[in-house]
Amino acid sequence: MPLIQVNTIKGVFTPEMKKQVIEKLTDAMVSIEGENLRGVTWVTVNEIDSGDWGIGGQTLTADYVRSIAAGEAAA
Length: 75
Description:
Number of strands: 4
Structural class: alpha+beta
Strand order of the largest sheet: 1-2
Radius of gyration: 15 Å
Largest sheet: 2 strands, parallel
Helix content: 25-40%
Order of helices and strands: EHEEEH
Shape: elongated
Low-confidence stretches: none
């Protein structure tokens, strides 16, 4: 029974985007493990407050991540 955990910065994904993440990750696991395990495939989306996440010594914010997604800033 797999548990898939997705960590993201709060405010980056809309509720619809989170719904799609859950559905598509479940579909990906079912394509590997078989349809009979769909009902016991867990996906959680954990949101970390904007500014409470960093990479390479730089604090990440929801605004910065959205600017990367929009192609307005370098990753």
